[in-house]
Amino acid sequence: MTKIFKFCIEYYRLEFKLNTLTKHLIIISLLTAVFFSCDKPIEPEMKNGQIKLNLQQTSIPSPSEHVQLELTINNSENEVYNSYSQFRISLVYATSILSFHSARIGALLDDCKWEYFTYRNYSYDSRFNVIQIDAIADVSSNSNHPTNNFFTGDKSNILATLDFIVTDDTSLNCTTLPVSFHIFECDFNQFISADNSKAFTLNNGYFGGSCESVLDTTVAQLLPILTFEDIYIETRCPDSIDTRGDINLNEIVFEIADALIFENYFVYGDSVFTIDLPKQIDASDVNADGLTLTLADFVYFVRVLTGDANPYPSDYINSPEYINGACYNLNGTLTTNENLDIAAARVILAGNVTPVLAASNMTMRHYYNGSETIVFIYSLDGNHFTGSFLDIGSASIVTIEMANDLGVQVDLTQELMIVILEQNYPNPFTTTTTIEFAVPVAQSISLKIYNVTNEEVDSFESYVEAGLFSYEFDATDLDAGVYFYKLTTENPPQTITKQMLVVK
Hints:
By secondary structure, this protein is mostly beta strands. The protein has four domains: 3-35, no CATH class; 50-234, Immunoglobulin-like, CATH 2.60.40.680; 267-416, Immunoglobulin-like (Sandwich), CATH 2.60.40; 420-502, Macroglobulin (MG2) domain (Immunoglobulin-like), CATH 2.60.40. Helix content is 7%, strand content 46%. It has helices spanning 107-111, 256-268, 277-282, 295-305, and strands at 4-10, 13-19, 24-31, 34-42, 51-57, 66-74, 84-94, 98-105, 116-123, 128-136, 158-166, 176-181, 190-193, 198-202, 221-229, 231-234, 322-330, 333-336, 342-350, 356-357, 363-368, 372-378, 388-391, 397-404, 409-416, 420-421, 432-439, 443-451, 456-464, 467-474, 481-490, 493-502. Strands 5, 6, 7, 8, 9, 10, 11, 12, 13, 14, 15 and 16 form a twelve-stranded mixed sheet that branches. The chain is elongated, with a radius of gyration of 30 Å. The N and C termini lie far apart (91 Å).
């Protein structure tokens, strides 16, 4: 038989398409350039021995949602090529559009009782990450040996399930996101035969064929019979949502029954969607920003319910909005800065905690799920709070989410038991401005204001309890220009200085 030697060739190629819905350019394919030789002979391609691997999408995600891909294998018509001892698969994805969450062993390997399965997710360069999956049938010396032949009996064809999260970017609505098989080393994307004598390698794509196996140095024969099919993950189109706000899918939008299901989601999770999970999740995008199941959606739902806002039509598209804010843990009391009007907050605490509501005119629900306590603070009457809102004792915070009274998500900075000096607001200002600061324990503090010549123009000195405080600075009689304000504390001993601008 004629022996053939090949070189494996990869190169960078980026292809884009225009998302006609959002007018953004989206990467639709990518390849990478590396040259390396394959110094083992490769048998000529066999017509009836092909093995196909592909990725199958199990759901249609929106931005910020999970999507699972099933890595599947279809058997060869040649029975000789259906038994394996090990394999290595490598995939590449763009980190600007996807983040990798996890991988788990597929039903096929589980059914065959393969003993070793692992994966790595690592950076290839600033744009792309690589997922490497390794599996070995038999790694132990006991009497229980796994099945090498994947296709005897009634088995699944799923090698692994990969979990991704679509980036929080509404320009990714109604488009496709590539995940590709790629060879970066000579032992990538290969299957080794059950007797370790053959390496089954790539026969399609831009890579010129096959690479030398280094998974097992005893492999003497390379057979280019693997066909890989890349996937382009389809994302959901906002206009596929028929009725925003119909959470219970009864064709009546923005009713109390919908609000109760939505409310329960923030306590118990998506198990509350018992009718049609994808459709109920889609219906939660009531603020039309392409993101589902957010606190901003819930607050906007309440605004529509109370007559404070109008519902968006199904074909309307917003961009996500965020405002900056801070949340402090002051001796076990969670507190926001005073320029925030919060209409909904969701706090997840480690362990089994009994929280106490500190905000007025709000409702609190909490639930212990076995490892964490989920706390949801809200109002179906359109109320909101500022400042201290929840007593958690010594509990550890896992996450905090908030939305303000207009239904805008708050981009939070969490500060735990430290001294805080906020930027004054408004800034610049003409006459008066507010300076906020927070201290973790009761102590004496000093707040002083200076001009650019280091002349003191105002001061505030006091003994304060732990918490958040505000000081109103009056610059009516001062000249326009830059001024500095300096906070000095005793516990911890600290001095923080910030600047502000007076305009006339």
